[in-house]
């Protein structure tokens, strides 16, 4: 309850989420304890990381597909494809920005970095954290981070690069910088290690702090049926209703 931060939504019907029915959902906190750490936090600083497939996910009949492209803010390129425009995030030297980074991919994980800059992580999955300085962060499907960047290291004449471990980029462009793809490379020496990331306020977990101390234990077996190519929970696969949910009786 009362959580704020970076969230996202997606379809839970079939594989529509893999085909792109997803988006960012931001909850702003008027009493944000980290507000003094940044100057800009708006739609322009929301960064979504996703994947894109050249065929609908349902055409695989349940088998996992391999993405042809990964996207930053909905834009990307693929091998032997055209040099499509990359996403551009315009910034001003001297201002501090809060980037809300959301991994809404269907499959791949990402390593996010901004070349020649450090990231100060201040929120993870809707929970404020003690500020932690890193130069890259690994982010898996469904995860979200907020990180502030103080632009003090990159000359104004050079665009920077929001980079993932394999291939795709976006452009972090300073005012008056040339309109060109960046040429810097992705290097990390201080990646995020989650063991070093701590909640700003420890809410304490429910239950008792020892093995078997949970209030309720639910065992759910996840499996895959190779005869039907369907995933199962507790031995059962999802069966679509014969009547649309909104037209069915309670």
From TrEMBL:
- Keywords (A to Z) from UniProt: Copper, Disulfide bond, Glycoprotein, Metal-binding, Oxidoreductase
> Per the database entry, which stretches of residues form a coiled coil?
none
Q: What Pfam families does this protein's entry cite?
A: Cu-oxidase, Cu-oxidase_3
Q: Name one GO molecular function term.
A: copper ion binding
PANTHER family, from UniProt?
LACCASE, MULTI-COPPER OXIDASE
Instruction: State the family it belongs to.
Output: Belongs to the multicopper oxidase family.
SUPFAM superfamilies documented for this protein: Cupredoxins
Tree of life domain: Eukaryota
Q: Which InterPro entries match?
A: Cu-oxidase-like_N, Cu-oxidase_2nd, Cu-oxidase_fam, Cu_oxidase_CS, Cupredoxin
Natural source organism: Hypsizygus marmoreus
Protein name in UniProt: Laccase 4
Domain Plastocyanin-like residue range list:
2-31, 43-150
């Amino acid at each position: 309850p009362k959580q704020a931060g970076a969230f996202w939504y997606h379809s839970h019907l079939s594989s529509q989420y893999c085909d792109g029915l997803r988006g960012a959902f931001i909850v702003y906190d008027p009493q944000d304890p980290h507000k003094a750490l940044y100057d800009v936090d708006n739609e322009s600083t929301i960064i979504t990381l996703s994947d894109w497939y050249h065929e609908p996910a349902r055409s695989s009949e349940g088998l996992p597909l391999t993405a042809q492209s990964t996207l930053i803010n909905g834009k990307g390129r693929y091998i032997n494809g055209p040099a499509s425009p990359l996403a551009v995030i315009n910034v001003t030297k001297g201002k501090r920005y809060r980037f809300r980074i959301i991994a809404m991919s269907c499959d791949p994980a990402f390593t996010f970095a901004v070349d020649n800059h450090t990231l100060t992580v201040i929120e993870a999955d809707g929970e404020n954290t003690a500020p932690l300085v890193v130069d890259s962060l690994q982010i898996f499907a469904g995860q979200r981070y907020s990180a502030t960047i103080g632009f003090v290291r990159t000359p104004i004449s050079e665009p920077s690069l929001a980079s993932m471990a394999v291939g795709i980029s976006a452009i972090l462009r300073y005012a008056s910088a040339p309109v060109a793809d960046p040429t810097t490379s992705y290097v990390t020496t201080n990646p995020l290690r989650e063991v070093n990331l701590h909640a700003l306020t420890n809410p304490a977990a429910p239950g008792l702090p020892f093995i078997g101390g949970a209030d309720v234990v639910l065992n759910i077996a996840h499996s895959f049926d190779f005869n039907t190519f369907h995933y199962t929970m507790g031995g059962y696969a999802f069966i679509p209703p014969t009547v649309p949910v909104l037209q069915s009786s309670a």
